[in-house]
């Protein structure tokens, strides 16, 4: 089998890319994208395009780079190795396909990180935020064998929760485009449960003592994170678990944790049960946190109507 050209990373090439990064014209960026899509011999264009995915980059260049990179990675997703497999690629000698797979994994992770930053950053233009979020959610949809790519989605929600600046525009996009899908709601609750539990471990016991005795800055950060978790939970549309019988899914497999669609479980009763359980766990984990006074008042005013009726076992409150 003929070996495919692999990306080189000489210091001079990297320096050239960095020096040109701020002066590339739009037609040059388009050419980089076209060549990247045409042949593996142009794989070194990927880092140059990735460097343009910044909230401070010129909007037209960032949009063009994003579109090219998305077009490049989408058909390759099935062949991108796991992080562990990519890390072990060096043990396989100089097999070009394994080396290419490891390179692909690294570049894809960089793309995901850039899309998360563009989606969450307050410095992003609304246009690039919209396109970046759509690209990110497309990758979430394209998990292995049609599964929801929960790891990518968790990274995204983690960044939203830990954003120091308001995320109102992003929340509006999530509500208008994505929170209508049942599997996105399900994995939103799943991730927020994990994030709230992690944050809770830092605000209870010895972690709580450290927080209370820490700086005002650390206390303010914790308060911001709790506000963000609440805003996410409050923006997920409520479902009538008694009447809901049809469910729109973002991914092919939906709520299944396996790589195939289990039609025997694809019933309204099964989905309602799973979703209600995740809803309950997410809210319970959140309510265990030391809520700021304004959040506490909002929760107290709405919990009897918006939370308790949808919990799997309200008596545990």
Describe this structure in words.
The protein contains 14 helices and no strands. The protein is mostly helical. The longest helix is centred in the middle third of the chain and has 25 residues, at 96-120.
Relevant terms:
mainly alpha; single chain; 317 residues; 61% helix; 2 domains
Distance between the termini: 63 Å
Spans of at least 5 consecutive residues whose pLDDT stays below 50 are 8-21
- Domains (count): 2
Main sheet characteristics: none
Q: Estimate what percentage of residues fall within beta strands.
A: under 5%
Can you give the helix content as a percent range? Answer: 55-70%
Average pLDDT reading: 85
Order of helices and strands: HHHHHHHHHHHHHH
What is the number of beta strands? 0
Instruction: Determine the structural class based on helices, strands and strand pairing.
Output: mainly alpha
List the total number of helices.
Answer: 14
Q: What value does the Rg take, in angstroms? A: 22 Å
CA-based shape? globular
**Assembly classification:** single chain
Secondary-structure map with pairings?
Layout: H1 11-20, H2 26-38, H3 45-50, H4 59-73, H5 83-87, H6 96-120, H7 126-141, H8 150-161, H9 168-177, H10 182-201, H11 205-212, H12 216-235, H13 268-287, H14 293-306
């Amino acid at each position: 089998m003929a070996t495919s050209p692999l990306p080189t990373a000489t210091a001079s090439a990297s320096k050239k890319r960095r020096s040109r990064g701020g002066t590339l014209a739009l037609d040059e960026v388009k050419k980089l994208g076209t060549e990247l899509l045409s042949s593996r011999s142009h794989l070194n264009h990927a880092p140059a395009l990735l460097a343009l995915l910044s909230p401070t980059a010129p909007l037209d260049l960032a949009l063009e780079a994003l579109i090219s990179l998305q077009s490049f990675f989408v058909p390759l997703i099935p062949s991108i190795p796991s992080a562990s497999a990519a890390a072990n690629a060096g043990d396989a000698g100089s097999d070009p396909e394994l080396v290419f797979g490891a390179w692909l994994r690294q570049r894809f992770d960089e793309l995901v990180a850039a899309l998360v930053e563009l989606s969450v950053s307050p410095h992003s233009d609304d246009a690039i935020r919209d396109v970046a979020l759509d690209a990110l959610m497309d990758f979430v949809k394209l998990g292995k064998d049609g599964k929801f790519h929960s790891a990518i989605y968790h990274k995204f929600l983690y960044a939203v929760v830990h954003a120091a600046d308001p995320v109102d525009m992003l929340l509006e996009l999530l509500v208008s485009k994505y929170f209508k899908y049942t599997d996105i709601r399900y994995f939103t609750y799943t991730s927020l449960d994990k994030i709230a539990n992690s944050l809770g471990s830092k605000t209870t016991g010895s972690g709580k003592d450290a927080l209370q005795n820490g700086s005002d800055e650390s206390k303010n950060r914790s308060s911001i994170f709790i506000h963000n978790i609440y805003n996410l939970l409050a923006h997920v549309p409520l479902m009538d678990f008694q009447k809901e019988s049809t469910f729109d899914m973002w991914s092919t497999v939906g709520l299944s944790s396996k790589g195939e669609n289990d039609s025997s479980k694809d019933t309204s009763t099964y989905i309602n049960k799973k979703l209600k359980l995740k809803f309950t766990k997410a809210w319970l984990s959140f309510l265990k946190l030391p809520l700021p006074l304004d959040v506490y008042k909002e929760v107290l005013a709405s919990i009897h109507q918006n939370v308790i009726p949808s919990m799997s076992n309200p008596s545990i409150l």
